[in-house]
Sequence to fold (185 residues):
Amino acid sequence: MATCRVCRHPQRSVIEEGLLKSVPLRSIAQQTNPRVSAWSIHRHRQHLPAQLALAARAVEASAPSELLDRVEKLIEESQGIVTAAKAAKNWQAATGALREARACLELLGKLNGELQAASNVSLHKHLHLEAAHEAPGSVEEIDLEIARGFAEVTDNFSVEGIARLKRLVQGDLPALLVDGVATHA
Fold:
């Protein structure tokens, strides 16, 4: 079975580019070396749709890997910025670069299918009370619950307990929780 002369031609890509740009067949034929007839180029035109479909599939197949490569390059650049910023003790730039690296890693995980995007996020509020207590209904009942909790963490409203909480709020004292009660270190 004879094969298409254009398919075997050394300037095949130039001929096909001319066909895709709708250049007249005679003009394409005159530019080829060795010469190919306009009729051969006309017959070759039927091969283009199949070849274009194959090329489109190849482009589609390579697109995700190109995107993955680009994300990986961004990660490498972010890591380089982190290293330079740490060396210069520029902590703001280092944290920004780390944040970007994290976002790139997250994107990479989603692209690879290693991470799934959250499909449904729901927030709800709980009122945590001991089983013996019912949910307070009035403002007075709420105030009473707050006062009971405050009395518990301040050792029954002791001056030392209140001062400790005040220092804790001002950031002067690290908080430690022991059995749910804040204590000072």
About this structure: The chain is about 65% helix and 5% strand. The mean pLDDT is 76. The two ends are 92 Å apart (CA to CA). Residues 62-112 form one domain.
